[in-house]
Amino acid sequence: MRILFVCQGAIGHLNPMLVLAKASVEQGHEVHFRSMESVQVKIQDTGAHFHSAVDMQPEFYKGRKLNGCLGAIDDVLEEHELEKSSFLSILQVLNVILEQQLPGSLRLLRELNPDLVVYDALMTSRDAMFAAKVLQVPAIGVWTLAGPGAWVTHSVTTMLPLTLADAHCHVAPFLPLLCDSTHQPILWAAALPWAARTSW
To answer: Given strand 30-35, what is the order of strands in its sheet?
Structure first.
């Protein structure tokens, strides 16, 4: 079986995926892994074939600086004049990021023709989930938990009271990207039931 793993470079998210990739290699599967070059050696140590997210997704990375494990997200935040230290800012540009990452993900899946996609269900790997859905490739989302260092940037949105009304004022400018063709709101969670399936 040919399996494609997709995960960004944050260690708290990557480490569980590395264990799964290594076990898959040991069971005789052909394993491919798309991530950031900063973790290439760790990925290759599992026996998986490494694919650079930067090389695979020029629509997203071209002309942007790589900052840390999340790649070019800081540049996207800057382009939209959003606060870089707030996790809420990242939530505001998720669909912008997805729109720019998806073409490269579709190309990679068409090139590799995997039997299965295993992706980190964290927001920066949503492109793999949607590409798999479009191409009808079975996919499994792995829910991982960031390490203690993540609280520095996540605390703004996870530790303070934030009502739906409070969140709406932050997300409202991006509503055209969060609506379907009839202008009905789309909740990201609505995609989760099919994302958790192993086949469609």
So the answer is: 49-52, 30-35, 2-6, 116-120, 139-142
pLDDT of residue 188: 37
- HEC readout, the chain: CEEEEECCCCHHHHHHHHHHHHHHHHCCCEEEEEECHHHHHHHHCCCCEEEEHHHHCHHHHCCCCCCHHHCCHHHHHHHCCCCCCCHHHHHHCHHHHHHHHHHHHHHHHHHHCCCEEEEECCHHHHHHHHHHHHHCCCEEEECCCCCHHHHHHHHHHHCCCCCHHHHHHHHHHHHHHHECCCCCECCHHHHHHHHCCCCC
pLDDT of 193 > 50? The answer is no
What is the reported pLDDT for 15?
A: 87
**Which of 3.40.190.10, 3.40.50.2000, 3.40.50.150, 3.30.2420.10 would CATH assign to domain 2-195?**
3.40.50.2000
Provide, rounded to the nearest whole percent, the portion of the chain with pLDDT above 70.
Answer: 70
pTM over 0.70? The answer is yes
Share of the chain above pLDDT 90, in %: 47
Q: Which of 128-132, 135-139, 194-198 has the lowest mean pLDDT?
A: 194-198
**Domain-wise residue ranges, the chain:** 2-195
